[in-house]
Specification:
By secondary structure, the chain is mainly beta. The protein has one domain. Strands 3-5-8-9 form a four-stranded mixed β-sheet, with no helix packed on it. The radius of gyration is 22 Å and the shape is elongated. It comes from Romboutsia lituseburensis DSM 797. This is SipL SPOCS domain-containing protein.
Length: 198
């Protein structure tokens, strides 16, 4: 085991190996891959999307017993706000050989074009971890966690700041493992579709 100063000067004993290979954790809240494909095939030209992952380490509350093993992770997403904002636009730059490159819409290496507008989306990842306690009777316990997040989608340059979208979040994947008797590592992959409301 590794000794590590984690957060708030609390010392946990972290395991060298995060996950037990034969551990089977029930994940509730994931959207099936074939349904995500259906979502992607039903797009209109005004629909936009983004995806991101939300890694976290959560600590079991002090009034709860230590973890022996994780049984289930239950997750869902609540969208709490959206707003369209103005952003800068790349209108030109100078190449490495001092040649001016002009243009209204110049992408970066990730093929992202800044248009002057972004849709900011904020939400909460709500989760419940059910685990067996490290006590003789191996009773079941649960701990609830709410993790806030913020993300963005680049949208058309003529989008009014008052424009509203129908935001539909999907959980693509949940990964969880016990880091110590008191802490769990989780990583949630989230896909968000934004449909313009006329």
């Amino acid at each position: 085991m590794l000794n590590c100063d984690y957060t708030g000067n609390t010392s946990y004993k972290f395991y060298n190996k995060c996950c037990v290979e034969n551990e089977s954790i029930n994940m509730i809240g994931q959207y099936p891959a074939n349904k995500i494909e259906k979502v992607l095939s039903c797009f209109t030209d005004t629909d936009k999307w983004t995806e991101f992952f939300l890694p976290e380490i959560v600590d079991i509350p002090t009034q709860k017993p230590d973890i022996e093993g994780i049984v289930e992770v239950n997750s869902c997403i609540e969208i709490i706000s959206q707003r369209v904002i103005k952003t800068p636009v790349v209108t030109g730059y100078t190449s490495s050989n001092s040649t001016p490159i002009l243009g209204e819409n110049i992408p970066n290496a990730e093929c992202t074009n800044l248009t002057g507008r972004k849709l900011i989306i904020e939400g909460i990842l709500k989760q419940k971890i059910i685990y067996t306690a490290a006590v003789d009777e191996q009773s079941l316990h649960s701990a609830h966690f709410d993790i806030p997040f913020s993300t963005f989608i680049i949208i058309e340059k003529d989008t009014p700041l008052s424009q509203k979208f129908r935001i539909t979040p999907y959980i693509e994947d949940i990964f969880a493992c016990k880091l110590s008797e008191r802490s769990v590592f989780k990583n949630t992959t989230i896909f968000i579709k934004a449909s313009r409301i006329c």
